[in-house]
Specification:
It is a single chain. The chain has 341 residues and is of the alpha/beta class. The protein contains 12 helices and 11 strands. The strands form 2 sheets. The protein has a 6-stranded parallel beta sheet, with helices on both faces. A 5-stranded mixed beta sheet has the order 1-2-4-3-5, with helices on both faces. The protein is globular and about 50 Å long.
């Protein structure tokens, strides 16, 4: 485990085992401020899988905060979902005590599997929580940033606007469904997949989306693939099947590894680095946690568009993959002499 921490340059790893709660909090880097990152609850296959997820996600949050210009470090929490029946409010209250024990070095928020109500339960035992009902769900802000990222990528790579675009969305959850709505309203043609047929039915009915099987989304003949489910979907199996010109979605850690980003670039596919275009939720949580309003959130999200354009331009000029340009930029802020905040 220490080798894993060292490899990710992770500063702290915390564990809690209490009643039904089996949780991990990973704090990556707090140079720019207290770590802020979502809490996932998933039926992890093993403790090792939960720990690896927390570490990888916490690192991504540091990079995300660095490029989003928010005064936060990177952290993430994962809860191993208990098997069978459990009292959800009790679980999240207990998780709140765990968050509280870190004295504010980690601020939690919603992520895959968690809802605003869970954040409200945490708030009963800890003040270090964003996206409780007094603040709200960050997902629409994430979707706003992703839609902006898609529009910038489409102009850059294809000289197309949203109304001329076809987009395949994998995963119609909190972010994916909101993204589908935004893109539909902007005139884009949609192809969608989800393991939940209620969600695909909704998108078909309200957004005129073409529904495909979960395995077929990767070779949909579209301009843009937007992975909005879980991570690791861009790998040696999926990349050779892609028909799109651009990959731009909200899922964290879409690239299975660095080589996957290089493989996309080799195929001539423009990749919008996930942590750059999905930072709208972090911007929302940080801005609202510090007392800012929605207008400030929206204007901070617009800045991610400038960062993305800079990354694309550098990647094209120096003939390197976009994820490497983004990582270098973030690392200069996290480890260089002049942090931005
Ligand atoms: P969510 O759990 O609400 O949605 C995920 C969706 O993906 C669900 O509808 C699920 O049924 C679907 N799905 C799962 N496996 C699938 C598969 N194999 N094929 C197709 N669909 C599948 O999660 P969310 O909050 O929308 O977040 C989605 C991703 O974006 C996650 O990786 C999350 O970490 C990341 N993210 C979310 C936010 C946010 O504000 N919620 C911010 C930044 C990043």
């Amino acid at each position: 485990m220490f080798a894993q921490m060292k490899a990710a340059a992770l500063s702290e790893l915390h564990f809690c085992e209490h009643g039904d709660l089996h949780a991990v909090i990973a704090i990556h880097n707090t140079r720019l401020g207290p770590a802020l990152g979502g809490c996932r609850i998933l039926p992890y296959q093993s403790e090792a899988a939960a720990i690896a997820d927390a570490i990888k996600l916490a690192k991504g949050m540091s990079y995300k905060a660095a490029l989003a210009g928010v005064p936060q470090g990177g952290g993430k929490a994962v809860i191993m979902e208990p098997e069978g029946d459990y009292d959800r409010e009790t679980l999240f209250r207990e998780f709140g005590r765990f968050v509280n024990s870190l004295g504010g070095r980690y601020i939690t928020a919603m992520d895959s599997g968690t809802e605003v109500e869970d954040m409200d339960a945490i708030r009963l035992t800890s003040p270090y929580v964003s996206s409780s009902s007094n603040i709200g769900d960050p997902s629409p802000s994430t979707a706003m940033g992703v839609a902006l990222g898609i529009s910038i990528a489409a102009q850059f790579q294809l000289h197309k606007s949203l109304d001329q675009l076809s987009v395949a969305i994998q995963g119609l959850g909190h972010v994916g469904m909101d993204l589908a709505k935004r893109l539909h309203l902007a005139g884009a043609r949609l192809v969608v997949s989800d393991i939940d047929s209620d969600k695909t039915d909704f998108a078909r009915q309200y957004f005129k989306a073409c529904v495909v099987d979960v395995d077929d989304i990767f070779h949909a003949d579209v301009d843009v693939l937007a992975p909005c489910g879980l991570g690791g979907v861009l790998n040696q199996h999926s990349i050779p099947r892609l028909q799109c010109a651009i990959v731009a979605g909200c899922a964290n850690n879409q690239l299975m590894n660095e080589a996957a980003g290089d493989a996309l670039a080799d195929e001539g596919i423009l990749y919008a680095p996930d942590y750059v275009i999905n930072s709208g939720g972090l911007i929302y949580c940080s801005t609202r946690y510090h007392g800012g309003n929605q207008a400030q959130v929206d204007s901070n999200i617009q800045r991610l568009g400038q960062t993305l354009l800079h990354i694309f331009s550098e990647a094209r000029q120096h003939k390197v993959a976009s994820h490497r340009v983004a990582n270098n930029l973030a690392e200069r802020i996290l480890y260089g002499e002049q942090p931005h905040a």
